Amino acid sequence: MNAAQRIKEVSELLHRANRAYYVDARPIMADAEYDRLLAELAELERKYPELAEDTSPTKRVGGEPIEGFVTRKHAAPMLSIDNTYSEADVTAWYNRMLGQLGLNKPEEGGLFGSAGGVGGLPRMLADPKIDGLAMSLRYERGVLAAAVTRGDGVKGDDVTHSVRTIRAVPLKLNDAAGVPIPEVLEVRGEVYFPLKEFARVNAEREAAGEELFMNPRNAAAGTLKQLDPSVTAARKLGFLAHGRGECSDKGFAGSFTEFLDRVGQLGVPSSGLSVACGTLEEVLAAIRDFDQRRHTLPYMTDGMVVRLDDFAMQDALGTTSKSPRWVIAYKFPAERKTTKLISVDHQVGKSGKITPRAVMEPVLIAGTTVQHATLHNYGRVRAAPVDPENPTGETTSIHLGDTVYIEKAGEIIPYVSGVVLGKRPAGAAAVEAPAACPVCSGPVEVEPPEAIENPAIETQRFCVNPQCPAQVREKLIWFAGRKQMDIDGLGEKTVDQIRAEPGIPLSSFADIFRLSAHRDALLKLDRMGEKKVDNLLAGIEAAKGRGLGKLLGAMGIRHVGDSTGKSLAKMYPDLDALLAAEEPQLRPKACNKEEASRYGLPTDPKERQETGLGKDTAPAVHAFLHSEQARRTFAELRELGVDLASHDYVKPGERKQATGFFAGKSLVITGTLTSYEREDLAVVLTGLGAKVSGSVSSKTSILVCGEKAGSKLDKARELGVAVMEEPELLERLRELGVEPAGR
Questions:
Q1: Cα(700)–Cα(720) distance, rounded to whole angstroms?
Q2: 703's torsion region: left (phi>0), alpha (psi -120 to 50) or beta?
Q3: Strand pairing category for 155-157 and 71-73
């Protein structure tokens, strides 16, 4: 057998394995065998790249990351479905629908006769409502051409790069099924996070010190919006069909039942749990029955979707401005229990966010026993609903010993939804928000700032010490990144590898610059040969000379990124001068007249230097710079030879107000440029007086556009923002005496 024949054979076998597993629920091979064949196919395609097809199963492992999302218009709108929470509302919808169809008098036959129902009533279908992200799969000539999110119903984001990694989604339809494949076929459905995989990913995130995903639906949505498809591939999402979009063959299916059957034969999975109903009583019975079974499924559901089965009847009923008249979603109410609050843990996430977590007496809810629940934030702790089963709008602060109501967000993550005030024990102490970080005792910042005066409106509380042990790993990876200290060879995997070695300390920025003392130990690590270690140490040595601006932007100080770090470095010649500055001096644009006079700033705020800090953010930065943690960090870096002088400092008398074409304009850069890296161009444009941001808005002056521009270009056109392509950009720069250095 030659290579072409073997590639075709293995590809077809893997496609059949996917259909057997996801559509037929009858696996034909073990996971290990699937992985072995996939590896064989990948090796064959590596040796013979000319034989690899776009629909190959190997394409599911994730390709190159994309730069941004393209917005696409739906061929047929993806309308939302009206929700209801009571059987009375389902009954009212059903009777209203019969009247609109002329079927409310069964003896008269109506417009469509029985249409498969009972006694002249229309046939209905009750289908589980999967709790995921709505998706439209567009197949052209049997091959997956696009996968687009619902968006606003008229247009959505093209996430084909991510959806291609989902094994339940066929990359090409099964042309051996004997079902005619339409030229264009759109299958609507739900991308979901299987509960087993959701638990696995959350366990991995917990082990890595990362914040847990709250529920599978939001996690699935966030996963699909990753620019890197390998992230989606690693999370093993699923897909189930639940509707149709454009179909070029009008005779493909006459009913929803027939549609699900046909797309199933073509390889697209559905729940297999649809229930045909001939009467309203059968619809309500199906809803009640499913409520008893839904917690046994391997994915989240939050209700049942009830629809007319016949497509002609659906078309006759039509839609309102936002929803079809022929379908309704019955949503199950969240289960709620009470238990006793024992204590509250104050957990610090990778971003420094401090989250209160309740420790409670164990309680069985939605099929599992829970002892911990999120309290969301300290604003909710201070203003929790009283007796949510009988809501009056009254709130109370949560006290230790309280009897609290527990629910599950998405029926996965437990949370405290209220307090039984009448059962509060005498002398119970209110839960207090930590005044300092519970891990490192560093300073904290409260959002919004007004919450300092009105604690009940607090939404977030952060530890602002970037050396906090709860944040160290993420900070180290950020610090070494290309746009920060640019330490070649110190990426995420290397950081984890070094931190796993007990003999090599790596828990602070200073420890990075001490790695040269551990060269022998580094050489003993797996896949760390002499060349790699020497390159790493050379990169670390070079990073010592990056200067104050780069250092500030790399330390992960809250509110201080690359541009703010550089702006501060323009104002102060070295770290000592920065530390000598008072808080208002860090926010010259936001100083009032009295402050401006005190610090010798121009009267007109427009003439003052921009640092990126304001009245809400400068106090937090100033507090960190003068904290014990920062003092210790800077002292260690100075001792290790890290350059704390500014490479960007401009003396006050030499500062000139930027003039020229770009001065004062707000710019966004998108696409691939031949003359500049985008980060380098942003620095050039900022130096010419422009403000460079990451997203297009009505305030954007110009979109600088390279090749392969995506949704930002569409947004700019929609808002009427001027678009400047690279030739015009270079011409404008040359007029200002700026020549590109080349990429």
A1: 10
A2: beta
A3: antiparallel
- Residue 109: band (very low, low, confident or very high) from pLDDT cuts 50, 70, 90: very low
Q: What is the pLDDT of residue 725?
A: 86
For residue 45, what are its two tokens? Answer: 């395609």
For 323, 582, 625, the CA distances from 548, given in Å and listed in that order, are: 56, 18, 13
Query: What does the alpha-carbon distance between residue 482 and residue 224 come to, in Å, rounded to a whole number?
Result: 26
Q: Which helix (H) or strand (E) holds 359?
A: strand 354-365
Q: Which of 129, 172, 691, 715 is catalytic?
A: 129
pLDDT for the residue 25: 62
For 407-445, what is each residue's pLDDT tens digit?
875 556 788 989 999 899 999 999 999 999 998 998 998
CA distance linking residue 374 with residue 681, whole number of Å: 44
Amino acid letter, 494: T
Q: How many CB atoms lie within 10 A of CB 672?
A: 13
Can you list the positions of beta strands (E) in 366-498?
368-374, 384-385, 395-396, 403-409, 413-419, 444-447, 460-463
Show Cβ contacts of residue 567 under 8 Å, excluding neighbours closer than 6 positions. Answer: 609, 610, 611, 612
| Cβ neighbour number for residue 199 with a 10 Å cutoff | 13
DSSP state of 691: E
Please state, in angstroms and rounded to a whole number, the distance separating the CA atoms of residues 399 and 381: 9
Tens digits of residue pLDDT in 319-368: 876 789 999 999 887 778 899 999 999 988 767 889 999 999 998 886 67
Give the strand pairing for 327-331 and 83-84. parallel
Residue 708 makes CB contacts below 8 A (sequence gap 6+) with: 67, 671, 672
Average pLDDT, the chain: 85
Nearest to 673 by CA among 740, 598, 589, 597: 740
Alpha helices in 171-279 (DSSP H): 195-207, 216-224, 229-235, 256-265
Q: Contacts by 286-293 with C-beta closer than 8 Å and gap 24+? A: 286/126, 287/87, 287/90, 287/126, 287/330, 290/126, 290/128, 291/332
Asked whether 224 and 162 are in contact (CB, 8 A), the reply is yes
Report, as an integer, the average pLDDT of 637-643. 95
First CA to last CA across the chain, in angstroms? Answer: 47
In a 3-state reduction of DSSP, which class is residue 56?
Answer: coil
- Domains of the chain plus CATH, in order, are 3-61 (1.10.287.610), 83-331 (3.30.470.30), 337-423 (2.40.50.140), 472-543 (1.10.150.20), 548-654 (1.10.150.20), 666-735 (3.40.50.10190)
Element containing residue 242 per DSSP (H, E): strand 238-247
Length of the chain as a residue count:
743
Q: What is the mean pLDDT of residues 81-88?
A: 87
Complete edge-to-edge strand list for the sheet that includes strand 301-308: 83-84, 327-331, 301-308, 124-130, 275-277
Distance CA 581, CA 622 (A): 9
Both tokens of 174, joined, read 């099964």
Euclidean distance between CA atoms 62 and 47, whole angstroms: 19
- Alpha carbon distance 603, 618 (integer Å): 20
Does 129 qualify as catalytic in the annotation? yes
Cα three-residue angle 436-438-444, rounded to 5 degrees: 30
For 466, 725, 726, 727, 738, the CA distances from 731, given in Å and listed in that order, are: 42, 10, 9, 6, 9
What's the number of CA atoms in the CB half-sphere (13 Å) around residue 305?
A: 25
Tokens of 61: 């492992």
pLDDT tier, 743 (very low <50, low <70, confident <90, very high otherwise): very low
Q: How does strand 444-447 pair with strand 460-463?
A: antiparallel
In contact, 336 and 404? CB cutoff 8 Å:
no
- Token duo for residue 30: 């073990």
Q: Token match 């130990």: residue?
A: 521
The CB density around residue 367, as the number of other CB atoms within 10 Å, is 11
Instruction: Give which of 558, 359, 548 is closest to 471, Cα–Cα.
Output: 558
